[in-house]
Write a structure and sequence with these properties.
Chain B: GO terms for molecular function: ATP binding; ATP hydrolysis activity. The complex is a heterodimer. By secondary structure, chain A is mainly alpha-helical. Chain A contains eleven helices and no strands. In chain B, strand 7, helix 5 and strand 8 form a beta-alpha-beta unit. Classes of the chains: A mainly alpha, B alpha/beta.
């Protein structure tokens, strides 16, 4: 058994880096969006909710295609890239982050939104009648009560970013050390008949997915324990 | 009525098919009941006083402070109120002690300490302090909720049918505590109920509501009859403002 080859290690590190950055931004974005979607209920908010949920059903390559167009020199992504002197967001790490972020958004918004709904408005009202400022209510009541949902969002967001293939291939290409994440590397190794590396990555993904599922089910158990 | 002390409130508005238009006042101490059948708008009025609901047109004035008028609306968390909801609504992620102390504020540390021990003693909460809230009985939960509202040291206590979610034995268990509380309160209390016995037992003056309107308010004679009780001294006194 040989140790991991340097290019596999590189892909692992890049993948974890991408997933960590994406998940952090994801939660920062999903919390206020879920909050805003949860109260008060308006019909047009369900339209916004549906737009956010689109990646659940759209083929990732379709999303990737639109991202590629938007990230190009003549799209909004190109304009953003100009801020640091680049021509395009496509085939770059920031581009991957934005793509993964929007792709994983529904997986994070849904559990947090559900947690907010399950909690209801009452704890917020109680906190207000006890003199708690909105900020104090948020961090000492809302976050702890919605924690199972938030944790689920973190796990799902991280896992989906690690496993994403269609989008990263479309907008990231396959540049070692920059955009070549594990799922793309696996495809590459199979193309080049490097079965040993492909096996290592595939088996690693199976173990990772198993851990993810275990984590999720233990979170669900905990949140059910909370309700009783 | 325009002395500027006590509570003066007028609200007009509606939610769905229900409309309300009320105007009433409450003196600086004693327990004022808002009484009426279920669905007559009592809870909505109480929520308006607390600022949890915003009436389309509203005026709310308490002890010289304007909480709501045509251009002002003080948010709930900046109003010095205590609110006891129908269901106890304890924070499930906190212990009984943490729930009690969530709103504790004002005064020196020593004052807070003594307010804490007085409230604990009055509501018999000592044995519950370190427990979680999920496995308490309904009556115990409501006692904790009452204690939590009191420990905020409010200037006005609002109670929204605090007994209605409890069965008869639990009601009997809490009633004596509420009685002590209402007898010794040095702050005004607005108490909502649809139960005449509860009203007779706990409150000093009754405002009757029906379908969003005041149908009976205390007459001048009632007001004469109402004499503020001297607040009792001793360990039972607990809501010094």
């Amino acid at each position: 058994m040989t140790v991991l080859s340097p290019d596999v290690t590189e892909a692992v590190v890049l993948t974890l880096e991408l997933a960590a950055v994406t998940t952090t931004l994801l939660i920062a974005l999903a919390l206020p969006i879920s909050w805003w979607l949860a109260w008060p209920r308006r019909w047009w908010k369900s339209v916004i909710g549906a737009i956010i949920s689109l990646p659940l059903v759209l083929p990732p390559s379709v999303l990737g295609f639109y991202f590629l167009v938007a990230f190009g020199p003549s799209g909004p992504g190109g304009w953003i890239a100009h801020l640091w002197g680049a021509r395009t967001l496509a085939f770059t790490f920031p581009g991957l982050v934005i793509g993964s972020l929007l792709y994983a958004l529904p997986f994070a918004v849904q559990p947090i939104h559900n947690a907010f709904h399950a909690m209801g408005r009452r704890p917020l009202e109680v906190a207000a009648t006890l003199g708690a400022s909105p900020w104090r209510t948020f961090h000492s009541v809302v976050i702890p009560l919605a924690w199972p949902g938030i944790a689920t969002a973190i796990v799902l967001g991280f896992a989906h970013t690690v496993g994403e293939f269609g989008i990263v291939l479309m907008i990231g290409g396959d540049i070692p050390g920059h955009t070549r994440v594990l799922s793309v590397a696996l495809y590459d190794y199979v193309e080049n008949a490097r079965w040993h590396e492909a096996n290592i990555i595939a088996a690693g993904m199976v173990v990772f997915s198993f851990i993810t599922i275990m984590l999720l089910s233990s979170l669900q158990l905990r949140s059910r324990g909370h309700d009783s | 009525m325009n002395s500027g002390r006590g509570l003066q409130a007028a609200f007009r508005g509606g939610t769905g098919g229900f409309c309300y238009d009320v105007e009433f006042s409450a003196p600086t101490h004693g327990v004022t009941a808002l009484f009426g059948p279920s669905g007559c708008g009592k809870s909505t009025i109480l929520r308006c006083i607390a600022g949890l609901e915003r009436a389309r047109e509203g005026y709310c004035h308490f002890n010289g402070q304007i909480w709501q008028d045509s251009h002002r609306f003080v948010p709930t968390w900046e109003r010095p109120i205590g609110f006891v909801f129908q269901d106890p609504s304890l924070f499930t992620h906190m212990s009984v002690r943490q729930n009690l102390l969530f709103g504790a504020s004002g005064g020196t540390r020593a004052q807070q300490q003594s307010a804490f021990s007085e409230t604990i003693a009055m509501l018999d909460l000592e044995p519950l302090l370190s427990r979680g809230v999920t496995h308490l009985s309904g009556g115990e939960k409501q006692r904790v909720a009452i204690g939590r509202a009191l420990l905020r040291r409010p200037a006005l206590l609002l109670m929204d049918e605090p007994l209605s979610a409890l069965d008869q034995p639990r009601k009997q268990e809490i009633l004596p505590y509420l009685r002590t509380l209402c007898r010794n309160a040095s702050i005004p209390v607005v108490y909502i109920s649809h139960d005449p016995d509860e009203i007779a037992c706990l409150t000093d003056r009754v405002i009757t509501l029906d379908s969003g309107h005041v149908t009976h308010r205390p007459t001048w004679d009632d007001r004469q009859a109402f004499t503020p009780r001297p607040s009792a001294a001793g360990p039972d006194v607990m809501m010094g403002t």
